Each structure stands twice: as C-alpha cells, then as structure tokens.
C-alpha cells in the first residue's frame, strides 16, 4: 500500500513571501517623501550712481567756539564745489543682502573784505576748505516678498569724516599783518538700523524708499536718513530714479559741533548685473 506524503513546505513558503512583501509595502508607504532639492538663490549686484541736489541747514562750531548758523542752498554750495561722488550698491539673493552708500563732497570758498584803517586800505581774506565723507554698510533681511512689493529690514553702521581747513590773513598793501590757519573736524561711527521698501506700480514704474536712524549716543547723539522716490524701468538691467532725500546728524565732541540737515532732490541711474 503506497504511503501518502503531505507537502506542507510550499504553502508555508508562499505565505511567508506574501507577508514579507506586505510588510515591505507598508514600510514604503509610511516613509516620508524625499523633498526635491531647493534651487539655489541667484545673487544680483545693483550699482546706482546718483547726484544729490542738496542744501544744508543747521549749526557748525569749530575750535571750541560758539556754533554759528549755517544756511546754504545748493546754488551756494555748487559754486564752491571742487570734487564729489555718490553711489549706492546692493548685493542681494532675494532673502539676505548687503547695502552700501558712499558720499564724498569737497568744497572750497574764498571771501575777502577791504576797509580803510587810518587811511590805509586793509584786506581781510579767508579761505575755507571743507571735505565731507559718509560711508554706510548695512546687512539686509527680506521680511516681505511679493511680485509687486518687497520690504527689507536693515542693520549696520555709518562712518562720518568731516574736515575743515581755514586760512585767515590781514594785509595792508604788504606782507600779512596777521594770519591764522588751522584744521578742525572729527571722524566717528554711528550704529544704524532701518528699513527699505519697493513697490512696483506696473512693469515700467515703481516707488522706492528707505528710513534709517542711528547714533544713539555712540557716535553722534542722533542721525536719521529718509528717502522717497519714483523709478522708471527702462529695461531689464537699467532704470532711472528721481526722489527727495533728507539726512540729519547731531554731533558734538571736543569743541567740534556738527548739527545739520542736508536735503534736496536726488537723481540716479540704477544698473543691475
């Protein structure tokens, strides 16, 4: 009589494979999807040389003397203008950036007055050479970004260097009877904070501006800087801007006083690389 052999190994093997596949599928389903790599943000450089048609109002004190009132229009300044340059640059990747503003102006004025002293004409002459430099370096962080508008918060520092050379002489037809020459000024650094905004009206026109404040007694007692303007986008890389800027500073140290406000229209060309 033949013996009957029961095959139990094959069904068990099938069940084991099925269970393993089911467990593997469950593992695959529970694993989180791998996010695609985020695209690298492209850095852009913007350079904007500009011309500031500014006058100046305030008080200036030299050599520890009592400060005198200063009220000079742009026409007063430009006739004494010797050399100057102004440029704003910005390096930005859409989230973080570096902002830089450089301004340098050198003026030289000469004045003379002639009076009769004891029947002899005497001339008092004075020459004043003034150089002014400000350099601003600030980091930016974009807190709002939409196709129509951006808002950047800013923090950094501004360095000031104001230098005055004065020559005064009194003559009466011969060698100077009296003469005085001297230099006075100061260099200081102000911490700065602020914000910068741009609003695109359409593809061609936009509004922009910034508001900065600083000093806080570290360098100057207080300094502030406001700009509002409108721009025309000529093409992808070039635009033109027209606006109004006002910058104030209140500095008083070691007999040198510089408490002034510069203000006036501003014209610029913005080049994007």
Describe the protein.
- A hairpin with a 6-residue loop joins strand 2 (55-61) and strand 3 (68-72).
- The protein has a domain at 41-108 and 132-160 and 186-272: OPCA outer membrane adhesin/invasin (Lipocalin, Beta Barrel), CATH 2.40.128.100.
- The protein has a 10-stranded antiparallel β-barrel.
- The protein contains 2 helices and 12 strands; from the N terminus they run H-E-E-E-H-E-E-E-E-E-E-E-E-E.
- The protein starts with 8 loop residues before the first helix and ends with a strand.
- With 273 residues, it is mainly β.
Q: With helices defined by DSSP (H or I, 4 residues minimum), what is the helix count? A: 2
Q: What's the CATH architecture of the domain at 41-108 and 132-160 and 186-272? A: Beta Barrel
Main sheet: strand order: 1-4-5-6-7-8-9-10-11-12
Mean pLDDT across every amino acid position:
86
Give structural attributes:
Lipocalin, Outer membrane protein beta-barrel domain-containing protein, about 270 residues, 2 helices, Autotransporte_beta_dom_sf, 10-stranded antiparallel beta barrel, mainly beta, signal
What is the element layout, followed by pairings?
Layout: H1 9-30, E1 44-52, E2 55-61, E3 68-72, H2 74-78, E4 81-92, E5 96-117, E6 120-146, E7 149-171, E8 178-200, E9 205-214, E10 222-233, E11 238-253, E12 256-272
Antiparallel strand pairs: 1-4, 1-12, 2-3, 2-12, 4-5, 5-6, 6-7, 7-8, 8-9, 9-10, 10-11, 11-12
């Amino acid at each position: 009589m033949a013996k009957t052999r029961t095959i139990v190994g094959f069904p068990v093997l099938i069940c084991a494979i099925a269970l393993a596949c089911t467990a593997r599928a469950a593992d695959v389903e529970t694993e989180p999807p791998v996010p695609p790599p985020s695209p690298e943000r492209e850095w852009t450089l913007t350079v904007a040389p500009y011309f500031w048609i500014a006058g100046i109002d305030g008080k200036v004190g030299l050599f520890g003397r009592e400060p005198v009132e200063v009220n000079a229009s742009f026409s007063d300044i430009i006739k004494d203008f010797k050399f100057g340059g102004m440029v704003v640059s910005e390096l930005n990747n859409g989230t973080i950036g570096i902002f830089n503003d450089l301004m340098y102006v050198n003026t030289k004025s000469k004045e003379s007055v002639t009076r009769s002293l004891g029947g002899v004409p005497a001339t008092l002459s004075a020459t004043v050479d003034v150089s002014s430099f400000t350099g601003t370096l600030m980091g930016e962080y974009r807190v709002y970004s939409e196709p129509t508008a951006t808002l950047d918060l800013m923090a950094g520092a501004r360095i000031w260097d104001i230098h005055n050379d004065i020559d005064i002489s009194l003559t009466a037809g011969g060698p100077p009877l009296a003469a005085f020459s001297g230099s006075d000024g100061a260099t200081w650094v102000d911490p700065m904070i602020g914000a910068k905004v741009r609003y695109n009206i359409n593809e061609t026109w936009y509004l922009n501006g910034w508001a900065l404040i600083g000093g806080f007694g570290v360098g100057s007692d207080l300094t502030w800087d406001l700009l509002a303007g409108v721009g025309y986008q000529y093409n992808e890389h070039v635009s033109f801007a027209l606006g109004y800027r006002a910058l104030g500073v209140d500095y008083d140290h070691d007999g040198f006083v510089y408490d002034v406000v510069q203000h006036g229209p501003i014209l610029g060309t913005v080049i994007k690389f």
